[in-house]
Fold this protein.
Amino acid sequence: MSWSAYGHAFLGILAREFRRFLQQRTRFLSSLVRPLLWLVVFAAGFRAALGIAIIPPYETYITYEVYIVPGLVGIIILFNGMQSSLSMVYDREMGSMRVLLTSPLPRGYLLVCKLLSGALVSLAQVYAFLLLARLFDVEPPVLGYLWVLPATVLSALMLGALGLLLSSLIRQLENFAGVMNFVVFPLFFLSSALYPLWKMREASELIYWICAINPFTHAVELIRFALYGEFSVLAFTVTSATTVLLTMAAIVGFDPGRGLLRKSGPPRN
Amino acid sequence: MTASRLACTQNPETSEPRLELFSRFARAINTHSSSFLLSAAVGLAGMSSSSFGETAYVSNEKDNTLSVIDIDSLEVIDTIEVGMRPRGITFNRDFTELYICASDSDAVQVMDMAERRIVADLPSGEDPEQFALHPDDRKLYIANEDNAVVTVVDTRERTVIAQVDVGVEPEGMAVSPDGKWAVNTSETTNMLHWIDTESNELVDNTLVGQRPRHVEFTKDGALLWASSEIGGTVAVVNVADRQIIKTLEFKIPGVHRDRIQPVGIKLTDDGRYAFVALGPANHVAVVDAQSYEILDYLLVGRRVWHLEFDRQGALLLTSNGVSGDVTVIDVEKLKPIKTIKVGRYPWGIAVAP
């Protein structure tokens, strides 16, 4: 198989992902409205809540709005990952996934292309949100906007891979509500997105530990550090390792010969 | 409001460090990997103020020490032991000597800056808290909190020139740029006391809001800004007739009115801004010094007390008593850029070139 075939396949998948995104204007809008509501309404009530301790990577006292922004970037990516998972289930039900998977290119490559495309779509939303956040006095250093790019891509790959794995497990679109309850909400609320971990520890040691091992916490921290021009080795290590594991599991999941797809069987009507 | 109360009762020192085991490991590695970025950022911040070689001295009330901050790197580079409960500190004109109000030692100590050690005590009267040096670089006006007097000391002869009776609990001190007036605030009498520096006599009083703490003259000496801690106000007084021309009030969303207690004031040389430290409100108010409009509230550490500019006026340093740190504000951007841990209960700040 020539390189151009690989490139062609990637561009094809990327174009489809972007087209899908652009055609669903409400999706772009809602992906911005959701975090903005958190920032404007939720954070307003906690305005001074964090003016009490300095936590890395911040160099001085910050408002709650400033704290919550990396977590909201995380939720944009998380929802995107889930959206892409939803679309995989839809593709499977509609039969278009069969077309994709019958390509002579390796299945793993096609799935990684799908992940990368999803990550690039997330980037557009993340930057739009970060620019809007400036209106609410969340102004990270200019270089932070550059550093946040690789951090966002890596986090989006991790959450996209999670979405892919889930889509290999979910039989029907109707089951997707369960994903929201059992995956998205626990991942988001049991992380450092809304409150710093030391604050969680004051409430419960158990919750603190769950938050500390939640990979979403590390994705958010990777973004938080990057946004302020710093690099967190721990967050990077956990996020990359989780990405690799989830991607491999998703590839296995999509292997009709031995994967979870076979176990789950065709959708029942 | 509930949240802010909650916040204010929280002690960062007792809260467990975040990420604990994970982050300890990470931080160890992080320190190396991210230090170049950090130092680059801090370096840039330092460069923008073009303040190479400057140092800030911060008196730590509970530690009986001075923390020395390098303005270039914004890091504490030294800690010097001084007398008990150091509060107000100020340099003489050529920065060869630093005067320190060691309140519980009942002395104003003189530190020789070449040797960085205390070389003498001035006869200050009891419990000196704040003072101001006359433009003649010789007369020091000291507020003696317990005795209701202002003591005037000749720093060269190290003798008391005069003692002026003022109101109860004298606190703030300022001398006008032309050297004509020394103004003292008395916390319980709620007055500004105007002392003629020629005769060293009290010639007038101005009634202000409850518990006046600090006074600051404009560069041209035409106006005097006075903060009232309990009153929660700042009065702008016309020096010519010693009448209040404007009273400023502060309101921070989510912070209860009682927590807004103005103390330190600093005015930019260009007459553009006034900065007011709002005590337990943990914010510094930025005021347009021409229109008296309050432009912004900047979040700093807990119980922000006194303020000082670097020599260029590009950075403003705030002493945050309860959180035990100094926040550095970029004056041009009106943004806090860094908070530096110092000793316990930092009080006064003085900057030397």
User: Anything to note?
Assistant: Chain B touches chain A at residues 3-4, 6-8, 10, 12, 15-20, 22-23, 25-27, 29-30, 33-34, 37-38, 40-41, 253-255, 282, 299-302, 323, 325, 327-328, 335-339 (CB under 8 Å). The first strand of chain B starts at residue 55 and ends at 60.
